[in-house]
Amino acid sequence: MSEHPAACPVCGGTALIRSGHACGRQRWRCKGCGRQFTRTAPRGKPAAMKHEAVSLYCTGLSLNAIGKRLGVSAQSVMRWVRDHARGRCPKPEPTGRAVVVEIDEVWHFVQKKPASSGSGRRSSAAPTG
Ligand SMILES: [Zn+2]
């Protein structure tokens, strides 16, 4: 026998009744929203693990290191961090007189050195003539 699920995965309602079987598993129907489901365990990794991944990322660990440590892929860690940032850290917009400058080349400004240093000429030469 399968254990009774705690709550409806969609609406969270606790009034659940048996509703036949699907793929060898007990199917349940929620009396609140009418949805049927067979999966009793929630999908995805627990929120605590995601929170830990974001915390580790904020300490400077790489996505690969976090993934290895938690036993998930680096891609998953990146998605959790991105979702976390999207909800809490909105992208700042330029305000006031901010100007967007696009730099596509690197320029070097070399100041001309004074003639007395390293020019090969003697600076303390006695005047001739
Ligand atoms: Zn429901």
Keywords:
binds zinc ion; 3 helices; alpha+beta; three-stranded antiparallel beta sheet; elongated; 129 residues
List the helices and strands and how they pair.
Elements: E1 16-22, E2 25-30, E3 36-37, H1 47-58, H2 63-70, H3 74-88
Helix pairs in contact: 1-2, 1-3, 2-3
Zinc ion binds at residues 8, 10-11, 13, 30, 32-33, 35.
Helix content: 25-40%
Q: Gyration radius, to the nearest Å?
A: 33 Å
Question: What small-molecule ligands were found?
Answer: zinc ion
Share in β-strands: 5-15%
Commentary on this structure:
With 129 residues, this protein is of the alpha+beta class. 27% of the residues lie in helices and 12% in strands. It contains three helices and three strands. A three-stranded antiparallel β-sheet has the order 1-2-3, with no helix packed on it. β1 (16-22) and β2 form a beta hairpin. α1 (47-58) runs antiparallel to α2 (63-70), α1 packs across α3 and α2 (63-70) crosses α3 (74-88). The longest helix has 15 residues, at 74-88. The protein starts with 15 loop residues before the first strand and ends in a 41-residue tail after the last helix. The mean pLDDT is 83.
